From TrEMBL:
<feature type="region of interest" description="Disordered">
    <location>
        <begin position="1"/>
        <end position="24"/>
    </location>
</feature>
<comment type="similarity">
    <text>Belongs to the binding-protein-dependent transport system permease family.</text>
</comment>
<keyword id="KW-0472">Membrane</keyword>
<dbReference type="InterPro" id="IPR050366">
    <property type="entry name" value="BP-dependent_transpt_permease"/>
</dbReference>
<dbReference type="InterPro" id="IPR000515">
    <property type="entry name" value="MetI-like"/>
</dbReference>
<feature type="transmembrane region" description="Helical">
    <location>
        <begin position="37"/>
        <end position="58"/>
    </location>
</feature>
<keyword id="KW-1133">Transmembrane helix</keyword>
<dbReference type="Pfam" id="PF00528">
    <property type="entry name" value="BPD_transp_1"/>
</dbReference>
<feature type="transmembrane region" description="Helical">
    <location>
        <begin position="152"/>
        <end position="181"/>
    </location>
</feature>
<feature type="transmembrane region" description="Helical">
    <location>
        <begin position="111"/>
        <end position="132"/>
    </location>
</feature>
<keyword id="KW-0813">Transport</keyword>
<feature type="transmembrane region" description="Helical">
    <location>
        <begin position="224"/>
        <end position="249"/>
    </location>
</feature>
<protein>
    <submittedName>
        <fullName>ABC transporter permease</fullName>
    </submittedName>
</protein>
<feature type="domain" description="ABC transmembrane type-1">
    <location>
        <begin position="103"/>
        <end position="292"/>
    </location>
</feature>
<keyword id="KW-1003">Cell membrane</keyword>
<keyword id="KW-0812">Transmembrane</keyword>
<dbReference type="InterPro" id="IPR035906">
    <property type="entry name" value="MetI-like_sf"/>
</dbReference>
Length: 304
């Protein structure tokens, strides 16, 4: 006789013992997750690289103990090697150290620019989609004007009016992305506003602002947040472009764009001054875009 025994209704199992045919959800989920990452080595490399860049921006002392502003004249224009991983610049400053510390300035400006575009654009699209009528027409014509002007040209005009500096560059770049955030939010608000549960909430007597905040906004925010991730790589490039043109932080602050610009006069004798910061910048943009595409694909698959 079995240790578990039998009954007229079938075999009796001990408490906590799974049936033989019961699905093993945790191992299956683990296998699916492992298969997802193994099938996408480019995505794995992008996540690792971007995580290292973010870590360098938050805690640069983990990567280097040198002062990014202190130079040793005897070490000027040293090529990449053991003592200086990425070489030195014309003042004898370690290029790797300046890149690590420059990631903080560049990514802070990028985060502020994305935040400005996300908040201002989302509020504009939310009001336009919820109010409708003349308010919708006025706000959407305003976004059409923003979209009609090239982003770099608009940001140059704004940063000239606001003044030079990292914060001014971030605000100028953020304003250029307001229009796309507004359009996406408006489209999502109109889609969600026609849903059955929103109509039911209105029919039950719920106030309009409660419906907007409890039902419409949370369900419309997903695609907007995905676009914020998609926009991150482009904003890094745009912030670095303005820094390259001299509109960013004042020298000797090591922003990525200013590092690329600082090596232009030494291309023939010190190629690493422009090439290596440019490669780091390009790798960051490509990694951010790869992760954004993955998030966009997941969002589209989960959309009914």
């Amino acid at each position: 006789m079995s240790a578990l025994g039998t009954s007229p209704d079938g075999p009796v199992t001990a408490p906590g013992t799974p049936f033989d045919g019961a699905p093993r959800e945790a191992p299956a989920r683990l296998r699916r997750t492992a298969g997802f990452w193994l099938a996408r080595p480019g995505l794995v490399l992008s996540v690792v690289f971007l995580a290292l860049v973010l870590l360098a921006a938050l805690h640069p002392a983990l990567f280097t103990g040198r002062d990014p502003l202190a130079g040793v004249p005897a070490d000027r224009l040293r090529p990449p090697g053991g003592e200086h991983l990425l070489g030195t610049d014309q003042l004898g400053r370690d290029l790797f150290t300046r890149l690590v510390h420059g990631s903080s300035l560049t990514l802070r400006a990028t985060a502020l620019a994305v935040f400005v575009g996300l908040v201002a654009g989302s509020l504009t699209g939310l009001v336009a989609g919820a109010a409708g009528g003349w308010a919708d027409s006025v706000l959407m014509r305003f976004t059409d004007v923003l979209l009609a002007v090239p982003g770099l040209l608009l940001s140059l005009a704004l940063v000239t009016a606001l003044g030079f500096g990292t914060v001014q560059v971030a605000v100028a770049v953020g304003v250029t992305s307001v229009a796309m955030f507004a359009r996406i939010m408006r489209a999502e608000v109109l889609r969600v506003a026609g849903s059955t549960y929103v109509e039911a909430a209105r029919a039950s007597g719920t106030r309009w602002y409660a419906v907007l905040l409890r039902h419409v906004l949370p369900n419309a925010a997903g695609p907007v947040l995905v676009y914020a991730a998609v926009d991150f790589g482009g904003v890094v490039l745009q912030v670095s472009s303005l820094s390259f043109l001299g509109y960013g932080a004042r020298p000797p602050a090591p922003e990525w764009g200013s590092l690329v610009a600082g090596g232009r006069d030494y291309l023939a004798t010190a190629w690493w001054l422009t090439t290596l910061p440019g490669l780091v910048l390009a790798a960051t943009v490509l990694a951010a875009n790869r992760i954004a595409r993955a998030l966009d694909g997941e969002a589209k698959e989960s959309t009914p």
